[in-house]
Design brief:
heterodimer; A: about 400 residues; alpha+beta; 8-stranded antiparallel beta sheet; 14 strands; B: about 475 residues; mainly alpha; two-stranded antiparallel sheet; 22 helices; 2 strands; about 50% helix; about 0% strand; TBC1 domain family member 19 isoform X3 (chain B); Rab-GAP_TBC_sf (chain B); Rab-GAP-TBC_dom (chain B); TBC1D19 (chain B); ATP binding (chain A)
Chain lengths: ~400, ~475
């Protein structure tokens, strides 16, 4: 189910072109970008779906570097408390260059689990967990450059990251959240947050300690006795609205408000940390997929940011989410020049940051009391986008008709 | 008057008898003994002082809740000489119909119809069901002038209008720990954050150490012995809850609850007021010998396809397995068992089916006739909704609002009313279909429905 093609084809007045020189809008691959962006001339109105050096945010080792530097700067300018708001990324060390720093940290925390991740691959490829230095000593030897790698082609970089051992579990299962953030420019920083998203559950129980030791036996029995006409799970996702409701019924609305406000903090600070580094070309916009993990204390952690979040749909519900997401992205990009530029909401997107915090219209007070930004965000809330779009475009048409 | 008084005395005696065997009684006794130490308890006025102490310390409230709990399943007054089967189910043909092939009252002739319109539906049994004026009175708190959660908490309505005050009252009810008040309160819906506690209060569930121990014991039983019904449970969970977009997450909890449930002999207690009887089995080689009869499964309830859906929505509210278990068990012995046993009880599935058909035929006769003509008897579609109490068909938040009202009114009749309301809502589309399959398709997806507005429109805003 190709959501992107469907959305682009259905957009009124849009035509697909094959010739490289003719396009006004390009939803491109990052590989095309790398090869062609620098020598492609684009008219002012042209739009393309990536920033030239998005990897400053989306490659784990760069992101860590940028975040660390930003944190130091914040500490200098605004003190330790403010800098602590950047502590949403598990302690990470680039390998092999920060190996010694890593060992120091490793020795300070014996017995914890670490995770080794390749910086550039996705979908969990090449990842492994370890607890002993011995495990990575062996790995280091294996990947040590052999004779024919003495030249400057870099060995694939890895990062070693502290593994979050107490994730929040639902039904005994681990999950992470996928959230969509649309950045229209970095200088000034303009970012939109999509109301929909989902929680992705793992198939296996996280640890069986979470339920009961005796119950290990029960679930093994259950698995063994699977009936022959067992149908595979329809999908392992919960829409964010469902997730938000579940948490509210378990922890109350204030705790949920705090959690979501902490997540807003993650989005904004991560973008701020690369703001000065990313080449902010006015032709560029980017739809990021943020992966967030919640721990048992209801603290959100940033796992990674994806520059090309998957747009293939795994189910009907998923298809609707992604097509709506793409439609609204195109509305915000506004090739048709219908918007005034003062909108705070377009369909399912809420304007989260506009060179400064964007406040909610009703002046809702900061329930969390944490002094985080009380942004105009509604993650996991009702998404009545069709109605809102109708009203928006109707009023825009009305404005156009009245002479100024 | 004298008859009423003696009836009341009898009921009191029966409830006292029942409660004497309960844990609460032991606790009250212990508390009474301990209270003798207190300075305000004087020997001359011992009885009044202890009563006063109970009132202040909240024990009287607990006793009230327990009595209220017993009353909610108490059978209606009956003839003193009636044997126990009659108490379970007063109608003879219902008793005989426990092994169901065909359900008809042998005394009732469908022919004489001057006062009874020909019933178009599948249920041809003359049970008493409420009509809309009676339903309006019964469900008066759902009326258009009263605030409702599920209607008046939507995003467009400012919370000061109803929601804030309702939440405040809910917190007060919880702090008072009064079952009866909670039941009255929840008729207008429960705030999300308070629901778990409110349901526990209404069902009179408090997690005592003995309850947790009992549950642990059941779990041990699961590990030590296999039962054939376990296979039914695994199959059911895999086929229903695991395939559901939202409940798949709780698969493990479902096993924990249902496997233990099958082994819980305390569930047999509900057969005293259920028309059904637990299936019996005999020790090998001793067929027919009563001394060697055992109930099988131990709790007397054979699970069926969709059974796990009774538990799945509760996983949203309760995360502690023993509490989840207790809540489910109480919900079962108070409500769910009526959905799959043949009885004349107004909340029994037969009455619900008849109520649904009667409502539909009375208020949407054209639609009913049309559907019958194309071979799509409405009950064929709505039956599955009612048997599952709409679990798996409605969105979870809507389902919980519906089950709030089941608890609030201590009745399942709302399921039949909702089923009729759904048909009324989709009447326009249904009038255009020409086959059962097409009718099923129109009614296949209920996940976008808002339950409370539908009920309100059907009950209070439809011109009759």
């Amino acid at each position: 189910m190709n959501t992107l093609m469907d959305v682009l084809h259905h957009r009124p007045g849009w035509v697909e072109v094959k010739d490289e020189g003719e396009w006004d809008f390009y939803w491109c691959d990052v590989s095309w970008l790398r090869e062609n962006f620098d020598h492609t001339y684009m008219d002012e109105h042209v739009r393309i779906s990536h920033f030239r050096n998005h990897y400053e945010l989306t490659r784990k080792n760069y992101m860590v570097k940028n975040l660390k530097r930003f944190r130091k700067q914040l500490e200098r300018e605004a003190g330790k408390l403010e800098a602590a708001k950047c502590d949403f990324f598990p302690k990470t060390f680039e390998m092999p260059c920060e190996y010694h720093l890593f060992v120091e940290e490793f020795r300070k925390n014996p017995g914890i689990t670490w995770i080794m991740k390749p910086v550039a691959r996705s979908q969990g490829k090449g990842i492994f967990l370890f607890r002993r230095l011995k495990d990575i000593m062996d790995w280091k030897k294996d990947t040590r450059s052999s004779d024919d790698q003495k030249d400057d082609i870099p060995v694939e970089s890895y990062v070693a990251q502290r593994y979050i051992e107490n994730p929040y579990l639902i039904g005994g299962r681990k999950f992470d959240l996928r959230v969509y953030v649309l950045v229209m420019s970095y200088m000034p920083l303009r970012a939109w947050l999509y109301r929909d998203g989902f929680a992705r559950f793992s198939n296996t129980r996280f640890t069986l300690n979470s339920i009961d030791d005796q119950y290990v036996h029960l679930t093994n029995v259950a698995v063994q006795k699977t009936s022959p006409d067992y149908h595979p799970k329809k999908g392992c996702k919960w829409m964010l609205q469902r997730f938000r409701q579940y948490l509210a019924s378990k922890h109350g609305p204030e705790a949920v408000e705090t959690l979501f406000s902490d997540m807003d903090n993650i989005f904004i600070r991560s973008l701020q940390s690369v703001q000065k580094v990313i080449i902010s070309d006015k032709h560029c916009f980017e739809l990021y997929g943020y992966d967030i993990l919640i721990d048992q204390d209801l603290k959100p952690w940033l796992l990674e940011v994806n520059a090309s979040p998957s747009l293939t749909a795994s189910s009907q519900e998923d298809y609707e989410l992604k097509t709506s997401l793409l439609e609204d992205t195109l509305h915000v990009v506004d090739m048709e020049a219908r918007l005034t530029g003062r909108e705070k909401r377009v369909g399912g997107f809420d304007l989260m940051w506009n060179d400064g915090p964007v406040s909610r219209e009703d002046g809702a007070h900061d329930l969390s009391g944490m002094g985080n930004f009380v942004t105009n965000t509604h993650l996991g809330c009702v998404n009545d986008r069709k109605k809102q779009l109708r009203q928006l475009f109707r009023s825009l048409q009305g404005q156009k008709k009245t002479p100024n | 008057m004298l008859q009423e008084e003696s009836d009341l005395a009898l009921i009191i005696a029966q409830i006292v008898q029942k409660l004497k065997g309960s844990n609460l009684y032991t606790q009250l006794e212990r508390q009474a003994w301990a209270s003798l130490q207190r300075p305000e308890i004087k020997l001359e006025s011992l009885k009044e002082d202890i009563k006063e102490f109970f009132k202040i310390s909240g024990w009287e409230k607990k006793l009230q809740n327990a009595v209220y709990s017993e009353l909610s399943v108490f059978p209606l007054p009956s003839h003193p000489a009636a044997p126990p089967e009659h108490l379970k189910e007063p109608l003879v043909y219902m008793r005989k119909a426990q092994v169901l092939i065909n359900l008809r009252n042998p005394n009732y002739e469908n022919g004489d119809s001057h006062s009874f319109r020909t019933h178009l539906g599948l249920i041809q049994v003359p049970l008493k069901v409420k009509d809309i004026p009676e339903l309006k009175e019964f469900f008066v708190e759902l009326g258009l002038t009263a605030g409702q959660l599920g209607v008046d908490d939507s995003t467009q309505v400012p919370p000061e209008l109803f929601e804030n005050e309702h939440v405040r009252i809910g917190q007060k009810v919880l702090s008072e720990q009064d079952s009866a008040a909670a039941q009255q309160y929840i008729r207008q819906g429960s705030p999300t954050a308070l629901r778990a506690e409110l349901w526990a209060l209404i069902l009179n569930i408090s997690s005592q150490p003995e309850d947790i121990l009992y549950y642990e014991q059941l779990k041990t039983n699961v590990i030590q012995h296999d039962l054939l019904v376990d296979s039914l449970i695994y199959k059911d969970v895999k086929l229903t809850a695991s395939n559901d977009d939202y409940y798949f997450v709780f698969e493990d909890y479902l096993y924990q609850v249902l496997l233990c449930f099958s082994r819980d002999t305390s569930v047999l207690g509900h057969f005293a007021y259920s028309s059904a009887s637990p299936p019996k089995s005999y020790i090998r080689g001793k067929l027919g010998l009563e001394e060697y009869a055992v109930f099988y499964p131990p709790n007397g309830v054979i699970p069926f396809h969709g059974f796990s859906m009774y538990v799945a929505p509760l996983c949203f509210l309760y995360h502690e397995p023993s509490k989840l278990y207790q809540i489910f068990r109480e919900m079962y012995v108070r409500f769910f068992f009526r959905l799959h046993s043949i009885s004349s009880h107004p909340s029994g599935i037969v009455s619900l089916c008849l109520l649904f058909e009667t409502l539909l035929q009375t208020y949407l006769p054209q639609l009913f006739y049309h559907l019958r003509e194309i071979g799509a008897q409405p009950l064929r579609i709505s039956f599955k909704w009612m048997v599952r109490a709409f679990s798996g068909y409605l969105a979870t938040d809507q389902l919980l609002l519906l089950w709030d009202r089941i608890l609030g009114y201590n009745s399942l009749e709302i399921l039949a009313v909702l089923a009729a309301a759904v048909f009324a809502f989709r009447a326009v589309n249904l009038m255009e279909v020409t086959s059962l399959a097409a009718a099923e398709a129109v009614l296949a997806d209920l996940s976008t429905l808002k339950v409370m507005p539908l009920l309100q429109i059907f009950l209070f805003a439809t011109v009759t």
